[in-house]
From TrEMBL:
Keywords: ATP-binding, Cell membrane, Membrane, Nucleotide-binding, Repeat, Sugar transport, Translocase, Transport
Domain ABC transporter: 12-248, 261-505
Lineage: Bacteria, Pseudomonadati, Pseudomonadota, Alphaproteobacteria, Hyphomicrobiales
InterPro entries referenced in this protein's UniProt entry, alphabetically: AAA+_ATPase, ABC_carbohydrate_import_ATPase, ABC_transporter-like_ATP-bd, ABC_transporter-like_CS, P-loop_NTPase
Family as reported in the entry's similarity comment: Belongs to the ABC transporter superfamily.
Keyword Protease: no
GO MF term list: ATP binding; ATP hydrolysis activity
Record protein name field: Rhamnose transport system ATP-binding protein
Length: 520
């Protein structure tokens, strides 16, 4: 067992842990240890066992074999209350905020509220939350319902809730996946502060540069087993990738193909006002072109994609292949427009349906028992699901299970797989690989390139600037709800993208020349 910060022994040890679900071995002899004051990275591809290990620590699952040791003594984490009593705090990748509670109300869920006589002491509640938020999210709107927060703000509210009380161990599962670079750096500072105070931090991230910069130690899982552990200074990024994949090192994203810009005729031309007051976008997308959409949290990327999808009101002109585009999502689908949302759980799939049924949602009319019968044929749905699952290498114990049982990367594959087999003219993709491992990221990038190679125009909004640079033929940068830069060729550099996102774009970048003619 390798673990522990410099000069400290692990206070928490998992030794030879197994956990099976039928024939699926989620954990098959996993070892892990973390010391007080250590930032320990847990890495591995989706399906490697990270989520199962977290659920063991939270008391949701019990190990089939192996030992959990706390302070050298065997321990049983019988359930979430036991984990809470041990000082274990969890910040999950998929957030669990009450939509109509504000940040203060969400932070106090499950805690003993301060009172003034028989009444809740709301000022004291708010003051406590504000003090915690000041360290990581001083701009977080504490009195706004969670449903009205951006994904990044909801992530910060979840982190504030986890840090309300003292903790021995804080588990962070992809905590920066929806954060801007500024918010991520702020979170990194908080992580270091926690470690300096003696709190152990288990940090799970697919952003390996983040892992290399932040972690003291690491554990790599593959196929449910621990295949590597040690001090982060003793390994490099390529070494981590080799351990995760079991093969040669890869960045997880193939080099950007050198397709010519504007490979085909204009597929989308839009000049619209949408979302918050003052938000306006003018853009054109060519067939066969991958256009990256970048901006800080709150810049309006997701709102723009939803407006183009027809899910939120927009005013102005939208033309698809020269024809006016009207109506809502159903009309968009009929015209060959597809949408992959950022929030998989809330907007992406129906948790009450099976994986197979979710894959078939966009094809139900094709799977009827007979042309005049509305009921779909189970046999056709299952055959389609098996075909898509094999193509995308979807890892699932059974296609009859809920998509909520899938890892983040496999949930994302499901959302892409739903549209396979349909003619696509325009693809709107919000955070294509959020919380996805290096292997699944490469596969999803390949699917996006296949869409473009088949003639679809693609708009991919991402907060991962490395992904943006690797995937995009052209990049649109948003700030304050508006497109402020259109970058391609020699102008498309990381520095130019970041400068534009922070509102420092030069005049020649902030007024794209190729947009005016497209909408005229």
């Amino acid at each position: 067992m390798t673990g522990g910060s410099e000069g400290h022994q692990p206070f928490l040890v998992l030794d030879g842990i197994t956990r099976h679900f039928g024939a699926t071995r989620a954990l098959d002899g996993a070892d892990f240890g973390v010391a007080p004051g250590e930032v320990h990275a847990l890495v591995g591809e989706n399906g490697a066992g990270k989520s199962t290990l977290i659920k063991l620590l939270s008391g949701l699952y019990q190990p089939g074999a192996g030992r959990i040791l706390i302070d050298g003594e065997p321990a049983v984490i019988s359930g979430p209350p036991a984990a809470e009593a041990l000082g274990f705090r969890f910040i999950h990748q998929e957030l669990n905020l009450v939509p109509h509670f504000d940040a203060v109300g969400n932070a106090w869920i499950g805690r003993r509220h301060p009172r003034r006589g028989p009444f809740l002491d709301r000022p004291a509640m708010r003051a406590h939350v504000a003090a915690v938020a000041a360290r990581i999210a001083p701009d977080l709107p504490l009195d706004r319902p969670a449903v009205r927060l951006t994904p990044g703000q909801r992530q910060m509210a979840e982190i504030v809730r986890a840090l309300m009380t003292e903790a021995r161990l804080v588990v962070m599962d992809e905590p920066t996946s929806s954060l801007s670079e500024t918010e991520a750096e702020r979170l990194h500072t908080v992580v270091r502060q926690l470690a300096a105070s003696g709190t152990a931090v288990l940090f799970i991230s697919h952003r390996l540069d983040e892992v290399m910069a932040l972690a003291d130690g690491y554990t790599v899982l593959r196929g449910g087993r621990t295949v590597g552990a040690g001090r982060i200074r003793e390994i490099d990024r390529a070494g981590l990738v080799r351990l995760m994949s079991g093969g040669s090192a890869s960045t997880g994203s193939a080099a950007k193909t050198d397709r010519p810009l504007s490979a085909g005729a204009t597929v989308l031309a839009a000049d619209i006002a949408f979302g918050p007051a003052g938000a306006r976008a003018r853009l054109d997308i060519a067939a066969g072109e991958i256009v990256g959409l970048y901006g800080l949290v709150g810049a309006g990327r997701s709102a723009l994609l939803k407006a183009l999808w027809g899910a939120v009101p927009a005013h102005g002109i939208m033309r698809l292949a020269g024809r006016p585009l009207a109506g809502g999502p159903a009309g968009r689908i009929a015209e060959g427009v597809i949408y992959v949302p950022e929030d998989r759980r809330r907007e992406g799939f129906a948790g009450a349906l099976s994986i197979a049924d979710n894959l078939a949602l966009a094809h139900l009319s094709d799977f009827r028992r007979a042309p005049r019968l509305p009921m779909p044929a189970r046999r056709k749905i299952d055959a389609f699901a098996r075909q898509v699952g094999a193509r995308l290498r979807l890892v699932a114990a059974s296609l009859d299970r809920s998509p909520l049982t899938l890892s983040g990367g496999n949930q994302q594959k499901l959302l892409f797989g739903r549209w396979l087999g349909r003619p696509v003219r325009l693809a709107l993709i919000d955070e294509p690989t959020r919380g996805v491992d290096v292997g699944a990221k490469a596969e999803i990038h390949d699917e996006i390139r296949r869409l473009a190679d088949a003639g679809a125009g693609v708009i991919a909004a991402t907060s991962d600037i490395e992904e943006l640079m690797a995937l995009s033929d052209r990049v649109l940068v948003m700030n304050g709800g508006c497109i402020v830069a259109d970058l391609a060729g020699a102008l498309l550099t990381r520095d130019a993208v970041v400068a534009a996102a922070f509102g420092h774009a030069s005049a020649d970048l902030s007024q794209p020349q190729n947009q005016a003619a497209a909408v005229a």
